[in-house]
């Protein structure tokens, strides 16, 4: 999101919306995996 802001003006009210949409998509993906019997994929930082 920050890289987009550096290239194009974004309404400040759009940022919380995009953040909440991201949260919703994350939770829905976890729910779909749970209902399919698939485990969560844990994120691991690459150092």
Total of DSSP H or I helical runs spanning 4+ residues: 2
CA-based gyration radius:
15 Å
* Low-pLDDT sequence parts: none
Distance between the termini: 23 Å
Q: What structural category arises from helix and sheet content?
A: mainly alpha
Would you count the extended β strands for me? Answer: 0
Task: Explain what the structure shows.
- It is a single chain.
- This protein has two helices and no strands.
- The mean pLDDT is 86.
- The longest helix is centred in the middle third of the chain and has 22 residues, at 14-35.
- With 47 residues, the chain is mainly α.
- The protein is flat and about 40 Å long.
Strand-helix topology:
Layout: H1 2-7, H2 14-35
Summarize the structure.
The protein is mainly alpha-helical and 47 residues long.
Main traits of this protein?
single chain; mainly alpha; 47 residues; 2 helices; flat
